[in-house]
Amino acid sequence: FSAIDVIRAKRDGRVLTDAQIDWVIDAYTRGVVADEQMAALAMAVYLNGMTAAETARWTRAMVASGERLALATDRPTVDKHSTGGVGDKITLPLAPLVAACGAAVPQLSGRGLGHTGGTLDKLESIPGFRASLSLAEISRQLDEVGAVVCAATPTLAPADRKLYALRDVTGTVESIPLIASSIMSKKIAEGADALVLDVKVGSGAFMKNYDSAHQLARALVDIGADHGLRVSALLTDMDTPLGRAVGNAVEVAEAVDVLRGGGPADVVELTVALAEEMVALAGLSADPRAVLASGAAYETWCRMIRAQGGDPDAPLPKAAHTHVVEAPADGVLTGLDAYAVGVAAWRLGAGRARKEDPVSAAAGVLCLAKPGEPVVAGQPLLELHTDRPDTVPAALAALADAVTVSDHAVDAAARPLLLT
Ligand code: URA
């Protein structure tokens, strides 16, 4: 094979053969196909797409580039993947809840980049928490606690690790077959029997509209079926942040509120809806809402955090500086833009621009009002938290058009959380 022939084939709109796909992914992982050649191929895929069969084969080749975890546990294994949003801390209450329902939840997670936060960044705001675990530690914790939230080991889908970093700098991230194969190769390599996908739709998500999110969900579910994985997908709203907290420690605090029976209604509802899907796919009969109310999920959370070196009772970091944004007028808050709030939290230090950047545990935004709620002019709407007051002007600039107040409620405020 030659990389140039594979690039030309896709450039000219042809369907790649299984052998071409297997060869190019393997050769790229080994450094035989160069970055510039893979970048050209990724652009050709971006422009000309791939069939469902090509996408399935591409995913298979990426899984085969590394190892597939053999999870040693007697419980049924089930995982969740969210395509990413603003204030999306759902993994934090969800993993211990589903574990308390009887499943094993191996939640291999990532760090944040840009306006979306990363689950590991959030958890690392808990004093002592360790995100890097060995395979033996993951298996032991799955058996003993039922839930693990940790970093993916570099041995899982190494082809994707390399390709995703390349796509990030070559304008080739936003391709449904490439996104779907990237997500699913990691999830398949992780070895769970079942997977629930939370495909986000809206300003704060990858997929800005319902049709493209639906296409992505279809592609993800098809790949799962090709690998014998039980998969289902929910499409959920990401036009406004989930819950009231956006950042790291502030999101952990909100997740703990949910686990202790409180917390914002949207976070509770999405946690329970995803848990119901996961429990059903795992073949269990527990009722997640009742398990959450019983306090068992909170107990599992504490055991999970302790098992990973953290202290669930330790105070979380607090920002040195806060700044309040007030409501501009009397009326109903009809819009609070997820993307703008995500960028503001990032500017305040909660996120990173490059993979190597540090994040601030205490930085973030608290949304003191949510769409649909009445507000009066001058009332505090957003509370910005940061250790670096010099970041506040950039956060305020990001929020310039984020807030919409109308003199009467409009339909947008009533957009449902669950879109399917
Ligand atoms: N998340 C991934 O893991 N891969 C993509 O390509 C996009 C989002």
From TrEMBL:
Residues 332-406 form the Pyrimidine nucleoside phosphorylase C-terminal domain. It comes from Goodfellowiella coeruleoviolacea. Pfam families: Glycos_trans_3N, Glycos_transf_3, PYNP_C. NCBIfam families: PRK05820.1, Y_phosphoryl. Keywords: Glycosyltransferase, Transferase. This is Thymidine phosphorylase. Belongs to the thymidine/pyrimidine-nucleoside phosphorylase family. It comes from the Bacteria. GO terms for biological process: pyrimidine nucleobase metabolic process; pyrimidine nucleoside metabolic process. GO terms for cellular component: cytosol. GO terms for molecular function: 1,4-alpha-oligoglucan phosphorylase activity; thymidine phosphorylase activity. The keyword Glycosyltransferase applies. Homodimer.
